[in-house]
């Protein structure tokens, strides 16, 4: 069965995020009252697995493989079965 | 009051995503059965607003300001009030 997974990979708290700082500067300049802006990556993917627990395990293994363990944290934001279209 | 917002910005379906293709190649090489891998950006930020509807409106305006309307779509993935720490 196919599953759709959404994985977030973000810098750990305390790791300097220059991109987030830049975006914060832009938003503040536009008049938005924002702070602590952090920019990370989101991955959307479809994976083949026999069951939902297997899909979850596979998605977490993928997140682990793509994240830098020293600087980043990851989370499985969403996992849902994909309807097969005939 | 302060709110924490999580915003996703992703390429529209149909827009070629070279980074997603590259990640898909790596994952396939590692033995994962994945397809349609798409890589986007996630923004985490704190914003000041008088109410939750105002915070939502502000977060969506920020997402609109940061996304490229021709190539990208955005979504407010999560919005929650931040506990004030004294």
From TrEMBL, chains A, B:
Pathway it works in: Purine metabolism; IMP biosynthesis via de novo pathway; 5-amino-1-(5-phospho-D-ribosyl)imidazole from N(2)-formyl-N(1)-(5-phospho-D-ribosyl)glycinamide: step 1/2
Membrane-spanning parts: none
SUPFAM superfamilies for the chain: PurS-like (SSF82697)
Keyword Lipoprotein part of the UniProt annotation: no
Keyword vocabulary terms for this entry: ATP-binding, Cytoplasm, Ligase, Nucleotide-binding, Purine biosynthesis
Pfam families (alphabetical): PurS
Gene3D superfamilies reported for this sequence: Phosphoribosylformylglycinamidine synthase subunit PurS
Cellular component GO terms held in the UniProt record: cytoplasm
GO biological process, alphabetically ordered: 'de novo' IMP biosynthetic process
Highest taxon of source: Bacteria
GO molecular function term, any single one: ATP binding
Predominant place of localization: cytoplasm
Annotated catalysed reactions: N(2)-formyl-N(1)-(5-phospho-beta-D-ribosyl)glycinamide + L-glutamine + ATP + H2O = 2-formamido-N(1)-(5-O-phospho-beta-D-ribosyl)acetamidine + L-glutamate + ADP + phosphate + H(+)
Subcellular location field: Cytoplasm
Family statement: Belongs to the PurS family.
HAMAP family assigned: PurS
Record protein name field: Phosphoribosylformylglycinamidine synthase subunit PurS
Protein species of origin: Calidithermus terrae
